[in-house]
Amino acid sequence: MKIFLDTANIEHIRHGVRLGVVTGVTTNPSIVSREGKIDYQKLVQKICSIVPGPVSTEVLSQDVQGMVAEAREIAKWAQNIVVKIPASLEGVEATSVLAGENIKVNFTLCFTLNQALLGAAAGATFVSPFVGRLDDIGEDGMEVVADIVEYLDYYQLPAQVIAASIRHPQHCLTAAKIGAHIATVPYEVLLQMIRHPLTDIGIERFRNDWKKIMAREELL
Ligand code: E4P
Q: Is the sign of the CA dihedral 46, 48, 52, 57 positive or negative?
């Protein structure tokens, strides 16, 4: 499973790329707004220059023509740009038009298998089920991801599944186990993924035992 960062924070993205594990980024208007007063296009282009793989950014229009026009402009920003199109009926049509022009679409705000199947059938490169937001309303977000992974594979639809709206490391674990192609994770979750108290205790114990060896050698 590939790891994308779900952020527009340049320092966090640089760190993720330096770690050698972050191969893509997803943004949305809420995520970008957290970066304060910025030039939206410049920020996204900067992210594209740092990240080796796909960088998703969202259209704001809701009608087909508006989404397509916006997406065509966004697609010119960088070679690794992906346009996020929402899982509405208009979004399906826009996805179909854009796929016909080889513009990569991340079919976003998916909450059901039906939505993902339509996005994938229309030619989306990625479909993004939002796990945390489904969990928030008492549904099982990961069950939806599992269904999407299973049925895209069954019908041999090439869209890749991005497990999105990830809230904690357990989500990453389950996404990996059920075969999601990608998990897009907040920076804090990326940091949490590596932590385990037994690792810290183990490192400390090895350091202490090594000091004992050194002390003995000094006595010889
Ligand atoms: C993914 O592409 C979205 O930007 C993101 O995962 C949404 O997460 P949230 O539900 O925490 O806002």
A: positive
CA dist 145 and 165 (Å) reads 11
- The answer to whether the beta carbons of residues 70 and 59 sit under 8 Å apart is yes
If you average pLDDT over residues 184-193, what whole number do you get? 98
What mean pLDDT is predicted for residues 145-165? Answer: 97
For helices 141-154 and 113-121, the axis angle rounded to 10 degrees is: 40
State the architecture of 2-219 in CATH terms: Alpha-Beta Barrel (3.20)
Assess whether the C-beta atom of 7 lies below 6 angstroms from ligand 1.
no
Comparing CA positions, the residue from 159, 133, 129 lying closest to residue 147 is: 129
Nearest atom, ligand 1, residue 106 CA: 2
